[in-house]
Amino acid sequence: MIEIRNARKSYAAEVRIGPLNIDIPKAGITSLIGPNGAGKSTTLLMIGRLLNMDEGQIRVANMDVRSTKSDDLAKILTILRQENHFITRLTVRQLVGFGRFPHSKGRLTREDEAIISKNIDFLELTELESRFLDELSGGQRQRAYVAMVLCQETEYVLLDEPLNNLDIARAVQMMDHLRRAADEFGRTIVMVLHDINFAAKYSDRICVMKDGQIAAFGTVPEIMRADLLTDIFETKIEIIDGPYGPIAVY
Amino acid sequence: MSAPVSRPVPTHPDTPAGLQAGPSARTSGAFRSAREARRYRLLLGALFALGMIATLGLLLFNNPVSVDSPSFIPVVKRRVTAVAAMFIAALCHSFATVAFQTVTNNRIITPSLLGYEALYTAINTGAMFFFGAAAFVGFIGVGSFVLQMAAMIVLSLLLYGWLLAGKYGNLHLMLLVGIIIGTGMNAASGFMRRLMAPSEFDLLQSRLIGSVTNAKADYFPIAVPLVLAAALALYLFSRRLNVLALGRDAATTLGVNCRAGIFWTLVLVAVLMSVSTSLIGPLTFFGFLVAMLAYQAAQTHDHRYVFPMAFAIGYGILTTAYFLLYHVLHSQTVVSVVIELFGGIIFLSVILRKRSL
After folding, report:
1. What is the ipTM of this complex?
2. pLDDT digits 0-9 by tens, A62-89
3. 3-state helix, strand, coil in chain B (%, to 5)
4. Which helix (H) or strand (E) is B235 found in, with range?
5. What is the pTM of this model?
6. Which of A205, A233, B314, B330 could form a disulfide with B290 if both were Cys (CB 3.0 to 4.6 A apart)?
């Protein structure tokens, strides 16, 4: 479980995130949605200890993210940001292999290699595995980073807009992969999504943020309501019943 | 570049197919292929061979006395000092620059930005300006060497401690402050030099251009263990440096304590740069040139392979340049001037050819 208690972060006097209070249950996919500047990424980064909060406490699997040692956290929690600094002369396979660092400290064992191969195949990077990262397209690189994060094999996976740069087919595949990781391995996945309909189709729970506060948190039918979403996004949104569940039309 | 279409249905993470295809056929070595690994070994061997040949040339070639003469060995011994200085300079600049570029995530800067060389210049110019030529000539020996080295290490530790460990801990701010302090010290040195007598200036100038002839054998018992220990520590830190190169966020996610990692790397860089600068003087462009060539030659991101390549290139360049200048061209030009000239030309040509680093 991810427990957030009174977490706060202020960027400027008028830009404040929090206080946030929420319990994200173990297992399943939770999506964070909301307008730009609502604090979705900030919340995710604070859970993933990449951003220090000003006040409050966040616990992941009963570990305080501020006081637990970074390499202990790395075995239960991983986070992928939107932009990643990538270095030259690094191949896809070497990058994915870094996901094993918390476990093997850079000395890859046969089991590590098998896990690396598995995740590369899982994200369909097999043919690209010996390419350098600067020889890839944006979407391919995005998949390589997701493969690295999955390779870490942590119980909690935080993703900031994992569908960035992906075409429709790859986006659907990515969500299918993540859905299976959640269902079959009991992973807890929390991600920031911009597409409400992707969130509705693949999530177990949706957390809606606005103006630095959590506006609503609930199951998909509880959140996919025309009045609620119209209010949050300040745009006329209607919900219709599609073949795969509710669809937001705007 | 189009994404290759592989299977329409993605392989499940736990299907045995992935496991079977795995370990024997596919491994994550430091190189893309066995061919590149072989190329690396050949190149490294060739560079070390070049360094060895140039070293032997420097030690034995043009010896004014014959081999069977009793004074043959003393002449060689005197030359050993210069070769040892080249060894130390190559080791310091190659390791320090590669590590520094990694922790700053920037391939086009050098640790000179932190102001070591400006401080060296300021100390020497100040000694000449305030105490005169007689004192300046006397300002040499183990005492002054240790003093200069300590001053540089203390300055950089203050800079790191203040700007990296504080609440606003920020590497780029630290670099900027380092550049400003360096510029300030250079300006002060420039001012002092303008007020000097030409004879004093001439005496000073010879020490402000990096040269292995500045090195004295008395310094080695202090310099060599320090440099070897710092370089070994950096080499043992390679796997963590590989992760730090991914950037602060990715490294934190992978469980590496970035602040501590960057701090200790910079401390080792400070030791290496300080020893080298107080031993032979400033070599601004050298480390940069060596690191850039090393990445081109090694074709890997892995520091365990980049470090030896950088050292081999650095040592090869220094020894070959000195051998050619002294024994083939019979020139007394200071080698660092030539290195900086060729370094600049190679740097520009690489940028123009590849349009990137």
Report:
1. 0.88
2. 899 888 888 899 999 999 988 777 677 8
3. 75, 0, 25
4. helix B220-236
5. 0.85
6. B314
